[in-house]
Prior knowledge:
Layout: H1 2-17, E1 37-39, E2 45-47, E3 54-55, E4 60-61, H2 69-78, H3 92-96, E5 155-162, E6 165-170, E7 175-182, E8 196-197, H4 204-262, E9 273-278, E10 281-294, E11 300-313
Antiparallel strand pairs: 1-2, 2-8, 3-4, 5-6, 6-7, 9-10, 10-11
Helix pairs in contact: 2-4
Amino acid sequence: MLKAFLSLLFSLLLTNAHAQVPSVSPPPNDASMEKGLWKAPSGAIWMRCSLGQAWDGNTCTGTPTNVAWWRAVAAAAEVRFDGKKDWRLPTIWELWSLAHCSNGFDTSSSPPDLMPTPTGPVRVAAPCNGSRFNQANFARPTLDQASFPASYTGNYWSSTPNGVKRWMVDFGRAYPDGTYGNAWEGASATAAVRLVRTDDPAPSEWMSALELAGKSASAVRVREQAAAQAEAERRAQAERDRVAAARDEAEYDRRTSLFRKQVKEGDDTTLGIVVEVKGQLIKVQTIDSQCTQRDYKGNCLNWMTTPVEKWMKRSEIRPPR
Length: 321
């Protein structure tokens, strides 16, 4: 048993000792930089700005938009930039390649899940040194800030699935996570988006992402259409109720005007029974209520009612509705 335990411990230590970190290359001095693009050593073309930002010729302006995964996919499919329309979410391996720790990666630590790569799953070293002990003595966000100005210090989506979850990278500490958020349309998890394109055909996971996002978008459209229809019906009913109420009020005003002209003894009003009519004055018998007992909170426990007669102007009386 001890031998097996030591063997397992040694294998884990060996695995972490060989955990991979992104290769750091100086940002290429390329004319595309001035167009808001960054060309990676791999040949991939990255947008220097996050989704929600704009390139002004010098830097990224605006605030990165945090969205649900399927909305990120749907938005990427609609992007047109630099005359290209094949922009997409990066794979987790592509996204991870941007990570950079100014004080180095914590090679003694690794995320629980192996990271998918084009050549098979690997264990990566993460996060930045000091992150696990709340010693953020490194530059943030954790990527080359000259290449990606005004970047978001937080989570960015990838297209790579991990069951129903999706991989992302937290650029607040250079930590890849395969357990962050669901891909379906009801998921509440959000993250920022940085788009990439390559001259090679898009990876198969991107095509799967488009299909899943399309289903999510369709489901959302159905719900939105149903909600819009319900709201339209609610507004229509409210308008019908308003018209009916206005019609009833106009009819009541007409009856009130006629009642005031023809009021006589014995007629019922909103305040009581008419007992005498004298020109423009009307005597009405009504009920006067007084509280005779209250509890310690001031609530009335007993009411005493007394019939009283009051003189009112003819213009003050109204018939029951």
